[in-house]
Design goal:
Length: 488
């Protein structure tokens, strides 16, 4: 009888005050390429890390590699987030740093990172050159790691991990931040690897999957349950609708009619043009969808609006009725904006509790540094109750399941009832129920005079309130329209 690839017998993983997995058993046989889905917080990521040997398993996990295969007898785990360091080996970065090119080269370039990885793993760079082109990533090889968007970081993660071609490949949220074309490229590459002997475990709630995925499971009360298809995977419970806190029903008072007006904007980094002749006008109360492929300039465009980009000065750019650089401070701008983005999530203070996360929204900080007022405390408690986070308020944000982290960051975004909400791919990694919950709240908020900029790749995961769309392509405006049509 053929040995199983993975055999798990009574795996227990416990963090302080929290047993994540207890006496879990599971067997993966040769040829089984798994999709692991299910409810947030059920232990999927913990299980993946244990199989990869990244957390202790106390002998509960046995992996049997196939000595007859020519590919490496090892497990590669690709995490949801890409953890990189500066040239000194530290992760001492800050949220706006990717836009501040005057500070000098502090991280490796993409090409240097890949060459370093290839040398370490004894891999031939020519093997992946065509894959890099297919991903549309060839123009980023001279970019520093700090300059990449979340989608570009995900591509780099995937290129490295798939290049290694291990016997067992585990990918946690493989599609996070990827545009539709890149997802197709990834799935084709994964299918090719399976044909070469790689076995897959994907942790995802997506339905656009590689053809080679043939097994499906979720974790329910420490039991891995097999199901027949991705449609049978459990999802988070449907949202029990609550009434918005009264302070969020107050229409923001504005003495301007235009939230943002950009005229013929160019952004260059040396010889590279990131934005080329971009013009966009956003009136008070409008609801916009911002779309474009990875690397099209979306994050840079948003950074001009939210005040994080140093090149905002010297352009024909007006925010909230005032020309940029006419005397307003960055804090004058930020107090009118609530923002959530993958980069903000990634850089957020690891020591922040859920309560402190919400409190930081009053002061536009990536953490919490000052005492809050009595009325602000009331608003925090009201939002904790609204999002069913009261029981988690003293937990560290990063220890919560991803769906609850996103809700906490949405609460932080709206805590000061700002006139402009900027939601940059807020539903990355969420299942359809979680995304629906999130977007239902956005629709409720939008009904009370908010202006909205929403970034998302798929119309199936955007709020109903969207009225207009702007599409970027390689730094230029491809389309501005009022009727939603398929872009990608």
């Amino acid at each position: 009888m053929t040995e199983p690839v993975v055999h798990i017998d009574k795996l227990t993983v416990q963090y302080p005050n929290n047993v994540v997995l207890h006496n879990l058993c599971w067997t993966i046989h040769p040829g089984q390429n798994y999709l692991i889905g299910g409810r947030s917080g059920s232990g999927k990521t913990t299980l993946a890390k244990a199989i990869a040997g990244l957390i202790p398993s106390n002998g509960a996990i046995k992996i049997n590699f196939d000595s007859t295969k020519s590919i490496p007898a090892k497990v590669v785990y690709i995490s949801n987030w890409f953890q990189f360091t500066n040239l000194e080996g530290d992760r001492n970065f800050y949220y706006q740093q990717r836009y501040n090119h005057h500070q000098g080269h502090d991280t490796l370039t993409v090409k240097a990172e890949l060459e370093h990885f290839g040398a370490k793993e004894k891999l031939n760079f020519s093997v992946i050159e065509e894959r890099i082109k297919e991903f549309g990533f060839e123009d980023f090889q001279n970019a520093q790691l700090i300059e990449l968007s979340s989608g570009e970081h995900k591509k780099l993660q995937l290129i490295r991990g798939l290049w290694a071609k291990p016997q067992l490949l585990i990918i946690d949220e493989p599609y996070t931040g990827l545009d539709k074309k890149s997802r197709t490229v990834l799935n084709n590459w994964l299918d090719d690897l399976v044909n070469e002997g790689v076995q897959l475990i994907l942790i995802s709630n997506d339905t656009l999957l590689p053809q080679s995925i043939n097994s499906y499971a979720h974790i329910v009360e420490n039991v891995v349950e097999n199901v027949n298809s991705s449609a049978e995977l459990l999802q988070d419970k449907k949202r029990q609708k609550k009434e918005l806190p009264s302070f969020l029903k107050e229409v923001p008072q504005t003495d301007y009619t235009t939230v943002a007006e950009l005229n013929n904007i160019f952004v260059r980094y040396g010889d590279k043009e990131v934005l080329k002749d971009v013009s966009w006008k956003i009136n008070v109360g409008e609801k916009w969808l911002l779309q474009g492929a990875n690397g099209s300039g979306k994050s840079t465009l948003l950074s001009l609006i939210n005040g994080d980009h140093p090149q905002a000065y010297g352009h024909d750019l007006s925010l909230f009725g005032h020309k940029r650089g006419s005397g307003e401070s960055i804090w004058d701008i930020k107090k009118k904006i609530g923002i959530i983005s993958p980069e903000m999530h990634w850089y957020f203070d690891q020591n922040a509790t859920v309560w402190h996360t919400l409190a930081s929204g009053f002061y536009d900080s990536i953490g919490w540094f000052v005492d809050v007022k009595f009325t602000e405390k009331q608003q925090i408690e009201a939002l904790l109750d609204f999002f069913d986070l009261t029981a988690h308020k003293d937990q560290l944000l990063h220890t919560l399941p991803l769906g609850k982290q996103r809700l906490a960051l949405l609460a932080r975004t709206i805590i000061k009832n700002p006139p402009l909400l900027v939601l940059d791919e807020p539903c990355q990694g969420l299942d359809s129920e979680q995304a629906q919950y999130f977007n239902d709240v956005v629709d409720e908020l939008a009904a009370f005079g908010k202006t909205l900029i929403y970034v998302g790749h798929y119309e199936s995961q955007i709020p109903n309130c969207i009225e207009h769309r702007i599409v970027l392509e390689k730094g230029t405006v491809k389309a501005i329209e009022n009727i939603l049509e398929s872009v990608e």
